[in-house]
């Protein structure tokens, strides 16, 4: 989740078959990736070596992409979260490459999605305040031609999770 992965071609993956133990392991790791193998094994009712083998296979299959530490933005003074809706009249490869490069070079862009519908892209931008957002905005539009930008300030984060609903979708 730390970096936009759009430069790589989409990976053709067949759906990985997960049994109940795999789902339990993944649920535990999504909640706390610092759990030891012993702790995971105890909670799933298996021994350490089979649990390690399952985790290794889940990594190799691409189910587990990476392990990260989640930081509190407010504790770091990044109190303003903006959702930025972008419409562009440009859709050629050169423009897209410049736009993606511009996003990758800006650490304040913590998520970026290309959309279907009236809006072309949505960005999640975490900054110190509105003035910092304006500096980000000015820098972006000076680098890449954008038809229309709408910024929405999040007043309150109601729910945020990185945990995927694997118990239902992985069956």
Key words describing this protein structure:
171 residues; Arc Repressor Mutant, subunit A; Alpha-Beta Plaits
Q: What's the topology here?
A:
Elements: H1 20-31, H2 37-44, H3 48-60, E1 80-87, H4 93-104, E2 109-114, E3 121-127, H5 130-143, E4 148-153, H6 166-169
Antiparallel strand pairs: 1-3, 1-4, 2-3
Helix pairs in contact: 1-2, 2-3
GO molecular function: sequence-specific DNA binding
Protein name: Lrp/AsnC family transcriptional regulator
Pfam family, one: AsnC_trans_reg
Task: Give an overview in words.
This is Lrp/AsnC family transcriptional regulator. One of its GO terms (molecular function) is sequence-specific DNA binding. With 171 residues, the protein is an alpha+beta fold. The protein has two domains: 41 residues, Winged helix-like DNA-binding domain superfamily/Winged helix DNA-binding domain (Arc Repressor Mutant, subunit A); 80 residues, 2-Layer Sandwich (Alpha-Beta Plaits), CATH 3.30.70.920. The protein is 37% helix and 16% strand. It has six helices and four strands; from the N terminus they run H-H-H-E-H-E-E-H-E-H. Strands 2-3-1-4 form a four-stranded antiparallel beta sheet. A hairpin with a 6-residue loop joins strand 2 and strand 3. The chain is elongated. The model has no long low-confidence stretch (mean pLDDT 91).
